[in-house]
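hey so i finally got around to running the thing on that chain from the lab meeting. sorry it took forever, my laptop kept dying and i had to restart like 3 times. anyway pasting the input first so we r on the same page abt which one it is
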Amino acid sequence: MLENYLPVLIFLALATLLAAVLLGLGAILGRLGARHRNDAEKLSAYECGFEAFEDNRGRFDVRYYLVAILFIVFDLEIAFLFPWAVSLNATGRFGIGVMGVFLAVLVVGFIYEWKKGALEWD
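ok and heres what got predicted. didnt touch it at all, straight out
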């Protein structure tokens, strides 16, 4: 039984060893190569090119999350177009019809969100 898992165990051991060596090497070279100073400028919070003007635990507007979720949904749905385009020769007219229905549902959903004002940012 061990013979079946031996290559996997060797691979895991080598991967762990390699990760440890690379992390240790990075830490050593980081301390030797550059001056390791932690001054106030290096430890200060950096956000979009200017100092933070609010507490970072403040509440976000729910519209931010709504726009982010809508972007993810539409981005993933558009990602379905790539495999469809690759297999278009195999699917033929049926594939074009199915993708037409899919895109129609996508456009109807987008128009609904637009009319509801989900994409407004006042």
